[in-house]
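Why does residue order matter? Because the sequence determines the fold. Keep that principle in mind as you read this record.
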Amino acid sequence: MRANTNTASPASWGYWVGVHGHYCPHGKPYFLAWHRGFLVRFEAQLRKAAANSALVLPYWDYYNEPILPTEFQNPSSPLYLAGRTGKDVSRALSLTAFGSSLTNFPRGWTDAFEPAVESAPHNPVHNLIGGAMANVSISPRDPIFWLHHGNIDRLWDAWVHAGGGRHMPSTTSSYWSGSFIYGAAVAGMPRVDTYSPGVLGYRYDASVLPSSQLGLQANAAQPASISDAVVAPLPAQGASLGGAGGLVLGSRSSRVRIVLNREGRDRVRSLVIGVSQTTGNALRVVLDGITVTPAGARGGYFYKILLNLPARGPAQPEQNYLVGTLGPFEVSAALHAQAMANGGNMMAMHGPVRITLPAQQVLSRIWPAPLDELTLSFVREETEGAPQADAIRVDRLWVEAD
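Structure:
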């Protein structure tokens, strides 16, 4: 498939890289469902190429084995790809998405599974492996992409099977209306067909959620390692409650302080108290003018973005403060969305981008808390080989409220 240079043909590996680059929804509804169909369509082509109808895509269970499988590390193996930065994804392995409080599925609802599992472990695994995996447009070039997404698909199935009130929209819901596209040369797929693996004719040997007994690293931020960033304060204006400009993220963790005036404090309190089932996005963190340096584009790192993390350390589980993650993969996903919004114009895959993260639910989890200021802590997580130079620049950031 790699030797086939006709990227218009699904018999070539390049066709599937192109499909992902043009159609995949990241940070949008149907992230999980679209990729489930993508795996099934790709697996069917693998069977044709191998002349083996019994061939199945494997998955990489990194919660049990966080080191890149040896077959992918051997330069003489066809599963090897030059340019990867890391091989240990331990720092990506959060249990947040599998908590008992996340009982809803769709993006846009409170306590929703889909955006949580995309934020971690999905995005950080891409970031820590680096190389092609750190870029949405070309990530399927790396054979480990398929094993990573096989595991994400398995974890979704495990979430459903875990019960405890966890539920998806019913198959008769309008949520499943429409179809997914996988390029001009492959049949589309009705969204409802991705409702479960069983509908598509497969099942997993172990649809079980990761356990806290696995001995995962706590990955808790150490207060002494977070230094105040050198930034220029931005005044409250319009929807903004205040912000800062000129943030540079490198090998150290940084904290940005946003002082609130009385009106800002009152607005935050009213929003936190009023969080509801289907809303909760009225308070947001906005990162604008984001660019990745050439060194940072290699991956091997990411930053956890924590809201109002106490200076003396977390008073609650760290996940309660987490609003999102930031690394080269998230920036490439924002660039990809920018290109899709411009009619698929790949020229829009360049230049600075904006990323908006919901913050209202975080403050509702840690309420009551002092609100004289809001703080954003960018906690660096990295693997071996990560760049130690400046990695990501943020022109402006602010907290805004409707």
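The two ends are 50 Å apart (CA to CA).
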